[in-house]
From TrEMBL:
GO cellular component: outer membrane-bounded periplasmic space
Disulfide bonds: 35-263, 178-226, 207-214
SUPFAM superfamilies linked to this entry: Hedgehog/DD-peptidase
Record lineage: Bacteria, Pseudomonadati, Pseudomonadota, Gammaproteobacteria, Vibrionales
Highest rank taxon of the organism: Bacteria
Annotated organism of origin: Photobacterium carnosum
The name this protein goes by in its record: Penicillin-insensitive murein endopeptidase
Length: 269
């Protein structure tokens, strides 16, 4: 009982809203400082996928994201990859979480689990299913018995879509993808290493075409990202010794994030 009261007190205003605002779908602000107007609901089950932890109410997104996910899962089903489990997208009106996510605020981010059952899970199994780690984090290596080409193909399928801006995975997963022989490797540029993503991957879409309220992210660096940049994430990486004198730069004070004014309207509408 005390835990429930504590969670209620800690909840942000966005976590207390249970329905999307009316009107056309619009992502406002940046991925980590924004909101979602006219959010659309991803059906909890469809061709090739199921939504997990639906009780949290985080299956809303920009209409572009909902269409993308449904098309991705349909393609994965056609390729016989398996039944894909979709995690958090955004809350009904996007916005900030009290914990768990810094982004996922504009309905253009989605988490997709790397545990891929062959068949849809029962309602009871959906409530109890646990994540399946792909990485032995302590030893910084892939868990061979859990990783297969179906995980690799699903990430490739998502990253190859022109609507995708970035995909975040654990550096070891990126390393595994880099070692795989692909006919086309351009999509690897979008797959970015980021700690924490060892049991799921995080898809981030570009701002919808013609959007005037969405703040885009800088495109990733050129190349497939499989060289020095990726190696630098390893705990055993030794950076080249710099011979130039080190100039100390006074750190700038951390700026307080201020939500776009439109988000106040979205929250109160």
């Amino acid at each position: 009982m005390l835990a429930c009261i504590s969670q209620s007190v800690m909840a942000t205003p966005w976590e207390k809203v249970k329905n999307p605002s009316q009107g056309d779908s619009s992502s406002i602000g940046s991925y980590a400082n924004g909101c979602l107007a006219g959010g659309e609901r991803l059906p909890l089950q469809g061709d090739g996928y199921q939504v997990i932890r639906s009780e949290r109410g985080r299956y809303y997104g920009n209409s572009e994201m909902i269409v993308f996910l449904q098309q991705l899962m349909k393609q994965s089903q056609q390729l016989k990859i398996g039944n894909v489990l979709v995690g958090d997208i955004a809350m009904p009106r996007g916005g900030r979480f009290s914990s768990g996510h810094a982004s996922h605020q504009t309905g253009l981010d989605a988490d997709i689990w790397l545990r891929i059952p062959e068949k849809p899970l029962s309602p009871q199994a959906l409530k109890t299913v646990s994540a399946l780690p792909m990485v032995d984090v302590k030893n910084y290596k892939i868990i061979e018995k859990n990783w297969s080409m179906k995980q690799a193909q699903l990430i490739q399928l998502a990253a190859s879509d022109d609507r995708v801006s970035r995909i975040f995975v654990h550096p070891v997963i990126k390393q595994q993808l880099c070692k795989t022989q692909w006919k086309q490797r351009d999509w690897l540029r979008k797959v970015r290493p980021w700690f924490g993503h060892y049991y799921h991957f995080h898809v981030r879409l570009k701002c919808p075409e013609g959007s005037t309220t969405c703040k885009p992210q800088t495109p990733p660096p050129a190349g497939d990202g499989c060289g020095t940049e990726l190696a630098s994430w390893s705990p055993n990486y030794k950076a080249p010794v710099k011979t130039e004198p080190v100039i100390k730069v006074k750190p700038k004070p951390k700026q307080v994030k201020v939500l776009p004014p439109m988000c106040t309207m979205v929250l109160k509408s």
